[in-house]
Design a protein that fits this description.
Layout lengths: L1 H16 L4 H106 L3 H12 L1
Helix pairs in contact: 1-2
InterPro entries: Desiccation-related_membrane (IPR052928), YtxH (IPR024623)
Protein name: Gas vesicle protein
Keywords: Coiled coil
Amino acid sequence: MSFIKGVLTGAALGLLFAPKSGKETRADLRRKMDDSKKSASNYADKAKVRSGEMSQTAGEATENIKLTLSKTAKELREQLHRASEEIKNEARTLKDDVKETAEDAYVDVAVEVEDASEKIRKNVDDSTPNSSQAETSQSTTHE
């Protein structure tokens, strides 16, 4: 914008101080205006090209960011899935270990109870008199 103002100011000053005829001055003005229009058009074209390049670069950067975010999200989902599966497997293993330990404890307690019951039966049998002696002593006492 300031370029155009400068051209117009220069043209106006040139008119005031130029010792040329009106026809020559108008031709010079026309040429300078045409040059100014061409320069402005060239600047506009360059700006359009640069704008298109920046737009394309911004679009590519946006696409790259989207791809990176998508890839990162996918990797995080996969890591969470693997971690979840590992935790599930550990929980199953722990559950199986607890079940096996409980079964072993049950068997151990059952064996101990059976052994204790056997000892009690043996002690009871040892402490009671012979059943034939008990019958004999009962018949003797009834007579």
